[in-house]
Structures are given as C-alpha cells and as structure tokens.
Design goal:
Distance between the termini: 24 Å
CATH topology: 60s Ribosomal Protein L30, Chain: A
Low-confidence stretches: 6-22
CATH superfamily: RutC-like
Number of helices: 3
Largest sheet: 4 strands, mixed
Shape: globular
Number of domains: 1
CATH architecture: 2-Layer Sandwich
Strand order of the largest sheet: 4-7-5-6
Strand content: 25-35%
CATH class: Alpha Beta
Number of strands: 7
Structural class: alpha+beta
Helix content: 25-40%
Mean pLDDT: 87
C-alpha cells in the first residue's frame, strides 16, 4: 500500500493535477509484508524536500535536565516523543515530517513493546507513519535513561 502525505494530497487538489510540489512523502507498505502501520510505523518512506533535519537522540530529560517518568518506560517514551516534537517544531516542521526513527531501548524484551509502541502510536496517530527501527541496548548515556529516540525529518 502506498499513501502520500495528506497535506500533499490537499495541496495537489488545491493546485490542480499538473502542480509541481517542492516536497513529497510516499509511505510504502507492501501488502506482502505485515501491517506495520497498525504498530505505528511504515515499512519505508520515500521523501524529498528543501531541508533534511537530523535529530539527535531525544531522552526523557525536561528543559532542566530532570528525568521525567523515573523508571517507567512508557512515561519516558512519551517524554522523549514530546522532546522530539519540540525539536522538529523549532525547525519549522511537525511530526508528520519525520520519515525515520531509531529507538534505542535499554534491556529490550518483547514485554516492553507495548509501552513503547503505545507512545509511538500516540505520537504518530495520523496517516503519516515514519520508518522505524527498534534497537535493544545495554545502557545509554545516563543510567536513568530507558529510551532514546533519534529521528530524520524532511521539511519543505
């Protein structure tokens, strides 16, 4: 299944069928693979735009370097996604501009998937689902961090 960014589809409708767009995103989810969109991500995203944003790993620190969520993975994941949203917004974009995620999860086991997956699905609730890779790690930069989220966004 291929699905273009809804904003792009509206822009095409407004401009007519021969419009040239400066940015395009195509969400690629072949029917022969499992339905990753149900889990909050696409199998692949093809994108072009005027600016590519590489976002450093976002953790559960707030602006005062206080750990949000303690040792609760779900709470840390929600804060890390909020921080990601803040960085992308400061760059002139939205989470719909995020095309790729790398999630580093300390001591990852299958039972941790729901906590992280819920935060991912809440953050990317619309039709724009980034490509994503989950990576289990032994530790992160601070012993309190349970998750770190790195991203790539393509902005117009």
């Amino acid at each position: 299944m291929r699905c273009r960014d809804p904003a792009q589809q509206r822009a095409e409708a407004d401009r007519g069928p021969k419009a040239v767009l400066t940015m395009a995103k195509e969400y690629i989810n072949p029917e022969s693979l499992f339905r990753s969109v149900d889990h909050g991500f696409s199998q692949a995203v093809a994108a072009s735009g005027r600016k590519t944003l590489y976002v450093s790993g976002q953790t559960a620190w707030d602006s005062s370097r206080q750990l949000v969520g303690g040792m609760d993975l779900a709470a840390q994941a929600r804060q890390a996604f909020r921080n990601l949203r803040t960085v992308v917004k400061a760059s002139g974009g939205t989470l719909a501009d995020v095309v790729s995620l790398r999630l580093y999860i300390v001591d990852y086991r299958p039972e941790k998937a729901e906590a992280v997956g819920r935060a991912l699905r809440e953050s990317f609730a619309g039709p724009a689902k980034p490509a994503a890779t989950w990576i289990g790690v032994a530790s992160l930069a601070d012993p309190g961090f349970l998750i770190e989220i790195e991203a790539t966004a393509v902005l117009e």
